[in-house]
Design brief:
Number of strands: 7
Strand content: 25-35%
Structural class: alpha+beta
């Protein structure tokens, strides 16, 4: 998605970021365009893992005060969710003020499913804690 809030990283930059954060290189990448503020990619790594990278808007971008440091708050929220037993992706890496990019980024393991934006209204969705359970 073309947006001034979203970074445009090359394959070389994505590879370097993954190597710095996780010690593995990128063999394939797909930009996930459903979000509104953060740039997001699904990355296949050379060690066999698939991860999701979320990258905050560029630090020089003027933002509203409530938009600042959203990924830092998201990282904290994932920690609280895990502590409460909520099924969420595993946060593999949280880097704030990346020394190369200057921004913040999070790396998660992947969960299969449909994004909230693409979920059909009125259709039951599976509870990740109980795969056989459907909610109205």
């Amino acid at each position: 998605m073309n947006s001034r809030t979203k970074w445009h990283l090359s394959d070389v930059e994505l590879d370097a970021l993954a190597r710095r954060a996780l010690g593995a290189g990128v063999t394939a990448s797909t930009e996930l365009t459903d979000g509104f503020a953060n740039a997001v990619w699904r990355l296949a790594l050379d060690d066999g893992r698939e991860v999701v990278l979320k990258l905050s808007p560029p630090p020089e971008l003027e933002q509203l005060s409530y938009e600042l440091n959203l990924l830092r708050m998201e990282a904290e929220a994932y920690g609280l969710a895990v502590a409460a037993g909520v099924p969420v992706p595993t946060l593999l890496s949280a880097v704030f003020d990346d020394p190369v990019l200057g921004g913040d980024h999070l790396l998660f393991d992947t969960l299969d499913g449909v994004s909230w934006n693409n979920r059909q209204a009125g259709r039951p969705h599976r509870d990740a804690a109980d795969p056989g359970h459907h909610r109205p």
